[in-house]
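User: Fold this; tokens only.

Assistant: Input:
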Amino acid sequence: MRQYLYSCTMDLSPTLQQAIEQIAASQGLSSEQFIIQTLTEKINSFKQPTQASLTSPTGLRQKEGLWVFDTESLDHVDFNALITQSREECDWESI
């Protein structure tokens, strides 16, 4: 029998509790086994660097299947002015 050094009580919504029970049962696990497995997988995912963090020190990373570039706030940038300027430059190049 395993000895665990930590135990806790969680207040889960009935919906979440039902989802845990259903998924655990479909995998042949108890709810406790499923929660431990899921938490272990999530914690391990934080420990392993992503491919993007290994290959790009620029802040480019993948998030939910999309490439994301981390920057400071861009609230000061007038994107409409940039688009207008770009269009004007394209018009001049086509003359």
